[in-house]
Write a structure and sequence with these properties.
Layout: H1 10-26, H2 29-35, H3 41-63
Helix pairs in contact: 1-3
């Protein structure tokens, strides 16, 4: 079930964590692929910051999106109840 406008659920948090972890693992690989050099501590710190930012942006997007996928629009009265 999708979360309502200005609300997050556990699925949103899980997806945000998945995106953050994915960015943290992928970002340091770019220098390896481009130059063949392994990432240093500064590159790893940048990857952690990018992962945190990506996760927060995803959660912010979900916080501002209603259950119909519309950004900034309130819930409509005809939402389908699953059960």
């Amino acid at each position: 079930m999708k979360s309502k406008l200005l609300r997050l659920n556990l699925q949103d948090l899980g997806h945000g964590l998945l995106i953050a972890v994915g960015v943290v693992f992928i970002a340091p690989l770019l220098p390896v692929l481009q130059t063949g050099a392994f990432p240093d501590v500064a590159t790893i710190k940048q990857a952690l910051a990018a992962g945190l930012a990506a996760g927060l942006v995803y959660l912010g997007k979900n916080l501002l999106t209603n259950s119909q996928g519309e950004i900034g629009k309130p819930e409509t009265g005809n939402t389908k109840i699953e059960g």
